Amino acid sequence: MLELDRIDAGYGRAQILRQLSLTVAPGEVVCLLGRNGAGKTTTMKTIMGLLPLMSGAVRLGGREISALPAHKVAGCGIGYVPQGRRLFAELTVAQNLEIGLRVRGSGAAVREAVLELLPRLRERLGQRAQTLSGGEQQMLATARALCVEPDYLLLDEPTEGLQPSMIAAIRDVVGVMRGRGVGVLLVEQRVDAVLAIADRVAFIENGHNLETLPAEALRADHGIIERHLGV
């Protein structure tokens, strides 16, 4: 279980998250929704140790990981695809994947399994990341996170700016990971792109918890989303 237990976090003196609690179970897809500035990306960064906690705890399998440096958090089994992808632009596709493989000492078999999921990257292994299309860059960022062999996968705005075929490819990967028992925490503005694969949806506002609902409730009543997001 990935658990956020009443966490407070922010940037310097600017507190963003306030007593935020959240859980993601193995094999569960949880979508984190909220208006711009609600604290979604801050939540992701805090889980990964990129922002220090002011209070509360982040636990993975019952073990507190809040005080670990970011590279140690990844080594515990959390793959992270940040908003904006954050690839090593001058490195090749293969080199970007190698960075992911080194986190937990994974080898060629893991890379091969990842390329089976995202076969377009196999044709681009020698190509620099900066020369890929936007969709291919998102695939590479996802593949790099999968090379960590994650138990939990964090995806921050994975479909931003992508065409429908690329959105479908990312959605398919999420479905495969869920089937393998990987827990997924997903931040997404394009609700309809991910609602079909989500198990639960957690709404936040101004860094606070609102309600957490089964995704089927939102599929049945889109008015819930409109009420919380004003869209």
Topology:
Elements: E1 2-11, E2 14-24, E3 29-33, H1 40-47, E4 53-60, E5 63-64, H2 70-75, E6 78-81, H3 93-103, H4 108-117, H5 134-146, E7 152-156, H6 164-179, E8 183-187, H7 191-194, E9 200-205, E10 208-214, H8 215-220, H9 223-229
Parallel strand pairs: 3-8, 3-9, 6-7, 7-8
Antiparallel strand pairs: 1-2, 1-4, 4-5, 9-10
Helix pairs in contact: 3-5, 5-6
State the main characteristics.
single chain; 231 residues; alpha/beta; Rossmann fold; six-stranded mixed β-sheet; four-stranded antiparallel β-sheet; 35% helix
How would you sum up this structure, described in words?
The chain has 231 residues and is an alpha/beta fold. The chain contains 9 helices and 10 strands. Strand 1 (2-11) and strand 2 (14-24) form a beta hairpin.
